[in-house]
Specification:
This protein is of the alpha/beta class. It has one domain (about 1-140): SPOUT methyltransferase, trefoil knot domain (Alpha/beta knot), CATH 3.40.1280. About 40% of the residues lie in helices and about 25% in strands. The chain is built from 6 helices and 5 strands. The protein has helices at about 15-25, 40-45, 50-60, 80-85, 105, 125-140, and strands at about 1-10, 30-35, 65-75, 90-95, 110-115. It has a 5-stranded parallel beta sheet. Helix 1 (about 15-25) links the parallel strand 1 and strand 2.
Length: about 150
């Protein structure tokens, strides 16, 4: 199984994400892809619409496998349901939007839109929660006692 997490950020997030990636490697190949360039930086200073267009452009070539977009208005899952979402898929791609989220057009290309919480989360916190839930879901599917 391959899992790719795509995010738009100025720098590597840290926040303990590397630990979850390392622990999850025994169950799946995990790829953390952080995208940012001068075009995005400029677009974010111009407008929301221009930013969303740039996000779409940079993400378009990365759509592969079962694609999941993160959005605060997406479907909420508990950990057991999230584990089922991961089960029996060869490749999953998660997309985390930039400062303005993901465009409606890009979200329409996703197989599913999910929410990690009803709360609004900072980008780094959302990414950490996603990685923890990926690890937890893989453990549930493998019968590992991490999830109690």
């Amino acid at each position: 199984m391959e899992i790719s997490v795509y995010s738009i950020a100025k720098n590597k997030d840290g926040f303990g994400i590397e630990e979850y990636i390392k622990m999850a490697q025994k169950y799946a190949k995990i790829e953390d892809v952080i995208l940012f360039n001068n075009k995005i930086a400029k677009a974010q200073s111009i407008s929301k619409d221009e930013s969303l267009r740039c996000y779409d452009e940079i993400y378009a070539s990365r759509i592969s496998g079962f694609c999941i977009g993160l959005d605060e208005r997406g479907k909420l899952f508990d950990s057991q349901e999230f584990a089922k979402l991961l089960d029996s898929k060869a490749k999953i791609s998660f997309f985390i939007g930039g400062a303005y989220g993901l465009s409606s057009e890009f979200k329409s290309k996703m197989d599913m839109i999910i929410s990690l919480s009803s709360l609004t989360l900072a980008h780094k916190v959302a990414k950490l929660v996603l990685y923890e839930q990926i690890f937890r879901g893989l453990c549930i599917n493998a019968g590992h006692p991490y999830h109690k």
